[in-house]
Design brief:
It comes from Cottoperca gobio. With 595 residues, the chain is α/β, with parallel strands linked by helices. Among the domains are: 160 residues, Rossmann fold (3-Layer(aba) Sandwich), CATH 3.40.50; 70 residues, Luciferase, domain 3 (Roll), CATH 2.30.38; 131 residues, ANL, C-terminal domain (GMP Synthetase, Chain A, domain 3, 2-Layer Sandwich), CATH 3.30.300. The strands form six sheets. Strands 2-1-11-10-12-13-14-15 form an eight-stranded mixed β-sheet. A seven-stranded mixed β-sheet has the order 7-6-5-3-4-8-9, sandwiched between helices. It has a five-stranded antiparallel β-sheet with strand order 16-22-21-20-17, with no helix packed on it. It starts with a helix and ends in a 6-residue tail after the last helix.
Length: 595
């Protein structure tokens, strides 16, 4: 008996010691394991699709939900409730119109230029029901970029929202010359060559088109094209397969959302966050989403209270706007328990928690065209995700040393890249058949938490959008007085991302014309890509490999008291680029001047 008690005591002591050791040395072990097992379970289901050639797509899941919960609100938009059945039937009507009147066929690529509204989803689903791939066009891009997008994806048909038809005036003739047919979500059209859809939808059948049209045997079949800012000029079409769409649709579920949650989606649907994670995630769960045409900081919390929102999507800039709103007694009066997004700065994160309550912020790191994803399931403030032993077994990535001055990876004598030490900042590479350069500088601490540090190369982020510096530079280069231009992003205290700035050399015999430059950028560049600051230089600095030197320019910023070059700032009131004075500089830092 004594011996048995001794063994029992030893066992209890051993288990207790192991528990204490695990808590001290591996405090996140069980949370990591449970989360990874959950994700792996979903991954196994996707892998089975590959083996059986029986693919259950996001659209199939939507149709399934429309049959299971037909009367449940799917989308609430500007006070109107649209049930799963409503969206299913309207998308059927559109599918029939596309099939019979527009003559679209399985395999066609269709460009979609629409703002956030329920019909965006109905058009998207209607096209998908025919087996067509859909190219989501950024509603802010201008003529040259818009025409380029058609060539990228091979689309021969454009469907445009009623509120965006006038924006086509400058390029409509070019579209028609390229034999691109344009259909507007209107009942009547002022343009004789722009066809109308709404009048035809009302008369169409709401019966489903044959299921064989949407059927696919491979998860690798492309179903969407989402445009991202490339590093070499105009927007790039990232090909989205069914596999990627299905992975993104599991995001809310992976973080613990359920069908009882109400999602708030204020981000543009033409980006993958709102469409793939937001709408796809809502469909996967059978939940309800509140779709906002455009984010409004002043309406955000009243919307959340009105609709009992529990989960919202964000980008870091959105949270900062909310923190900048006047404090009210109702700041913590809401049911929001979770936010899912990316780009949330540590100081804004802390302020957001202090102001609006302990909402779990689930950062997601990934790119539309990339193959690596980090998910901050622990909720550690200031981190984009977490790696561990289990994660590294499934996903291969490396952080390598990067020379910011030369704007290139550091190589050893044999020409190989060098890994950074724990805690050091390095360039993130993810492995597929080869290594993919993400263009992001990251750091991984001793506990495996990963922090985003900066972007490198020719892309920066402003107003929630990626800005390709070479595209902006090419556009500015069309101005007659500009001989050479170097575009980059600079940090502004209290703002997310980087604001656009252009160092330029004026052609001999000509002078800088701020008014002419203002008119040019207003006409040819979206708001987020317009340079806020101009720096006139005599000589353009180059790297040892004959690239334009950006690092020194980025570091020096836009402070007129420390820069001897002439500086100008974009002024919307005066419709001009005006000299950047110390007074204007201080008003920008004090957030008195709206950017």
């Amino acid at each position: 008996m004594t011996l048995s008690l001794g063994w029992l005591s030893a066992l209890v002591a051993g288990v207790f010691s192991a528990h204490v050791l695990q808590k001290l040395c591996f405090p996140y072990f069980w949370r990591d394991l449970v989360f990874l097992l959950k994700v792996m379970r979903y991954g196994v289901k996707l892998e089975l699709f590959k083996l059986t050639s029986s693919v259950h797509t996001v659209l199939d899941r939507f149709i399934q939900q429309a049959q299971r919960i037909p009367n449940k609100p799917f989308v609430i938009f500007e006070g109107s409730v649209h049930t799963y059945r409503d969206i299913e039937q309207r998308s059927n009507r559109l599918a029939n119109v596309f099939l019979e009147r527009v003559n679209l066929r399985k395999g066609d690529c269709i460009a979609l230029l629409m703002s956030n509204e329920p019909d965006f989803l109905c058009v998207w689903f209607g096209l998908a029901k025919l087996g067509c791939s859909v190219a989501f066009l950024n509603t802010q891009i201008k003529s040259k970029s818009l025409l380029h997008c058609f060539k990228c994806c091979g689309a021969r048909t454009l469907i445009v929202g009623s509120d965006l038809v006038k924006g086509l005036d400058g390029i409509l003739s070019s579209l028609l010359e390229d034999n691109i047919q344009v259909w507007a979500m209107k009942s009547q059209s002022e343009h004789t060559q722009v066809h109308t859809l709404l009048d035809k939808v009302d008369a169409a059948s709401d019966q489903p088109v044959p299921a064989v049209l949407r059927a696919t045997t491979s998860v690798k079949t492309p179903n969407l094209y989402i445009f991202t800012s490339g590093t070499t000029g105009l927007p790039k079409a990232a090909v989205i397969t069914h596999f990627q769409s299905l992975k993104a649709a599991a995001g809310f579920w992976a973080f613990g959302a359920t069908e009882d949650d109400v999602m708030y989606i204020p981000l543009p649907l033409y980006h993958s966050a709102a469409s793939l994670i937001g709408i796809g995630g809502t469909i996967e769960l059978g939940a309800t989403c509140i779709l906002k045409k455009k984010f409004s900081a002043s309406q955000f919390w009243s919307d959340c209270r009105k609709h009992d929102v529990t989960v919202f999507q964000y980008i870091g800039e959105l949270c900062r706007y909310l923190c900048n709103q006047p404090t009210t007694e109702e700041d913590k009066v809401h049911k929001v328990r979770m936010g899912v997004g990316n780009g949330l700065r540590q100081d804004v994160w802390q302020e957001f928690h202090s102001r609006f309550g302990n909402i779990k912020m689930c950062e997601v790191y990934g790119s539309t065209e990339g193959n690596l994803c980090f998910m901050n399931h622990i909720g550690r403030i200031g981190t984009v995700g977490r790696s561990n032993f289990f994660y590294r077994l499934l996903f291969k990535y490396d952080l390598i040393k990067y020379d910011m001055l030369k704007d290139e990876p550091v190589k050893d004598p044999n020409g190989f890249c060098q890994r950074v030490e724990k805690g050091e900042t390095g360039l993130l590479l993810s492995k597929a058949d080869t290594f993919f350069n993400t263009g992001d500088l990251m750091a991984e601490d001793q506990e495996g938490f990963i922090c985003f540090r900066d972007r490198v190369g020719d892309t920066f982020r402003w107003k929630g959008e990626n800005v390709a510096t070479t595209e902006v530079a090419e556009t500015l280069g069309q101005v007659d007085f500009i001989q050479e231009v170097n575009v980059y992003g600079v940090e502004i205290q209290g703002h997310e991302g980087r604001a656009g700035m252009a160092a330029m050399i004026v052609r001999p015999g000509l002078t800088f014309d701020g008014n002419k430059l203002f008119e040019h950028v207003m006409r040819d560049l979206p708001a987020y890509a317009r340079p806020l600051f101009i720096r006139l230089q005599e000589v353009m600095e180059m790297t040892s490999t004959f690239k334009q030197q950006k690092f020194q320019l980025v570091q020096s910023g836009f402070n007129p008291s420390t820069i001897s070059d002439l500086l100008y700032v974009l002024d919307y009131q005066q419709q001009n680029y005006i000299p950047l004075t110390d007074r204007i500089y201080q008003s920008i830092l004090a957030r008195e001047l709206k950017l």
